[in-house]
Amino acid sequence: MVSPVESAVRGIVTKGLLKVAAFNRSRKPQPTTPHPYLSGIHRPMESELTLTELEVQGDIPPELNGSYLRIGPNPVTPPNQAVYHWFTGDGMVHGVRIQGGKALWYRNRWIRSTAVSEALGEPAVGGQRRPPSDTVNTNVMGHAGKIWALVEAGSSPVELSSELDTLAHNPFGGTLRGAFSAHPHRCPDTGELHAITYDGPNLNTIHHVVVDAAGKVRREEPIAVQHGPSIHDCALTARFVIVLDLPVTFSMKALLGGQHFPYAWNPEHRARVGLLPREGRGSDTIWCEVDPCYAFHPCNAFDTEDGKVVMDLAVHNDMFAHSTQGPDSKTVTFERWTIDPATGSVERRVIDAEPQEFPRCDERRTGKPYRYAYAMPLARGGHEFVSETHLIKHDLVDGTRQLHDFGAHRYPGEFVFVPRSPDAAEDDGWLMGLVINMDTQTTDLVILDAQEFDSLPQAVITIPHRVPPGFHGNWVGAVDSA
């Protein structure tokens, strides 16, 4: 544990570095071309809306009672384009409330960080914050009867109301001592959230954090690392939490150069995958080397009968090696990694070479063998992290895939699977997500029957404006957010 003296020294050093970074930031010339994550399809929304008259095509399944929520960066005031990185924009959450076969409303709300409240002329929202930033913009989910907006690298979770207003910066009722993650994974057997977390100023320690089913942190187990790796996500099996310690690390050069996102590709950092026993000590982690690469998002993982671990994930050849504006890898594939703790090795196999991201599964199968994965294809040759006009469904048993094409100039984001009932079979349910229509500058919440994947949508709910591409979304049932 860091001593109070060490914490004070770190605080002084951090404040000094931030002053140098701010000075260098002020001297950077503004770009002469539009910023790709502030223009075109990514142009931010400028206001908060509440819409109760939404056009619906098809039939919304009457079983659905809850809200589809999606979050992403949306600067409240024009940022300094010379140093703006997509990952650092003010958070904005979007939601569509569904009940009784009807779309009751659409809302969008900024997450009230200190800067957002000040820009909107409002008093600061209460709660516990962790310096240096309280911006939260990456994921939104339900847990323990509350709605949580999440981010990695330090900021506290933010509790939202069912109507998406910011209630408080809330580290799980004060039970979270350190940082959290944008990607906790719920164990379907215990109802607990498992996450691998890192804190920007701490370069040598990450943590395995467990939040129990009641929303209280019961475990923050330290794990030793080097260089301050950016660990966006993890995976879970019945035996292990999987740690992705890959070569994107804290960059002092980027920080002192004024960049708001001080992480970059580091070829000196050894790429490895850690298997941490779910209740083990950090020192019990079994490290397995892998070829240099980067992964934001695993889809799922499970143990095999012969003692190995299988993990499916979207794999980038590198990341943040060329651009300071957003993701910049040259290739990304959907792969299956077979991790052998006995030999410390990782066998990689490409499932699909088409560039794709945001892979999701039926999360009742989290940590267990599963058959179906759903992913968003990435447009080839661009650096705006925009999709192609279709969605992909993988059958991992048959080794086949299906496509759902939304039509020309219609760009889907991440889709989430919602089971038809708690005991429905895998893939028996709906897929839902936002699709931007660039011709009409509108956005559709599309609901697909997962078992009729390439057929016409079950329902299309039209939002009469463009919702910028964001990060992650989830279905939060009305019971889940009571």
Question: What number is the mean pLDDT?
Answer: 94
Distance between the termini: 37 Å
Helix content: under 10%
Alpha-beta classification: mainly beta
Low-confidence stretches are 1-10
Write the layout of secondary structure elements.
Elements: H1 4-26, E1 50-51, E2 55-58, E3 66-73, E4 91-99, E5 102-110, H2 114-119, E6 139-143, E7 146-150, E8 158-160, E9 166-169, E10 185-186, E11 193-198, E12 205-211, E13 217-224, E14 235-236, E15 240-245, E16 248-250, H3 252-256, E17 263-265, E18 272-277, E19 286-289, E20 298-303, E21 309-316, E22 332-340, E23 345-352, E24 356-360, E25 372-377, E26 390-395, E27 400-405, E28 410-412, E29 416-419, E30 429-437, E31 442-449, E32 459-463, E33 473-477
Antiparallel strand pairs: 1-5, 2-32, 3-4, 3-33, 4-5, 6-7, 7-8, 8-9, 10-11, 11-12, 12-13, 14-15, 15-18, 16-17, 18-19, 20-21, 21-22, 22-23, 24-25, 25-26, 26-27, 28-30, 29-30, 30-31, 31-32
What would your notes on this structure say?
Mean pLDDT is 94; it is low at 1-10. The chain is globular and about 55 Å long. It is built from 3 helices and 33 strands. Strands 2, 28, 29, 30, 31 and 32 form a 6-stranded antiparallel sheet that branches. It has 482 residues and is mostly beta strands. The chain has helices at 4-26, 114-119, 252-256; strands spanning 50-51, 55-58, 66-73, 91-99, 102-110, 139-143, 146-150, 158-160, 166-169, 185-186, 193-198, 205-211, 217-224, 235-236, 240-245, 248-250, 263-265, 272-277, 286-289, 298-303, 309-316, 332-340, 345-352, 356-360, 372-377, 390-395, 400-405, 410-412, 416-419, 429-437, 442-449, 459-463, 473-477.
